[in-house]
Specification:
The protein is of the alpha/beta class. 40% of the residues lie in helices and 21% in strands. The model has no long low-confidence stretch (mean pLDDT 93).
Length: 124
């Protein structure tokens, strides 16, 4: 069974990376993501890095799915929270593997509310 974990890595601040996301990045054999996302967490990646670009994302995700089918531990990194801003990429991953696990991160909305000292429930 092929499995890929999609990890939200926060709004670009490595200090906002969750402990769970950091642990997954350190243990993953393959980590994929767009270069700007990977750059923010590269220090914790010990496995192979697969850089995705819009022009080649289909091929890169096919390669990633092949690695997952071979039994490698694969992680895809996305900005923010996986439930907030990464649905298109998650759908592409889901179409290629049997199981997609989602690990939420800190969204830019939450980071902005914290920086402004504005409770999110007052923004709704």
């Amino acid at each position: 069974m092929s499995r890929v974990t999609v990890v939200g890595v926060g709004p670009g601040d490595p200090g906002l990376l969750t402990v769970k996301a950091k642990d997954l990045l350190e243990r993953a054999q393959v980590v994929a993501g767009f270069e700007t996302v990977i750059a923010s967490v590269r220090r914790w990646i010990s496995g192979e890095v697969v850089t995705i670009r819009y022009a080649d994302q289909e091929e890169r995700l096919d390669d990633l799915a092949e690695k997952a089918r071979a039994g490698l531990t694969c992680v895809v990194c996305v900005w923010g929270d996986v439930t907030f801003s990464a649905s298109e990429l998650i759908d592409r991953v889901r179409s290629r593997v049997d199981v997609v696990d989602l690990v939420p991160g800190v969204s830019s909305v939450l980071a902005a509310c914290a920086a402004l000292r504005l409770p999110m429930e007052r923004c709704l």
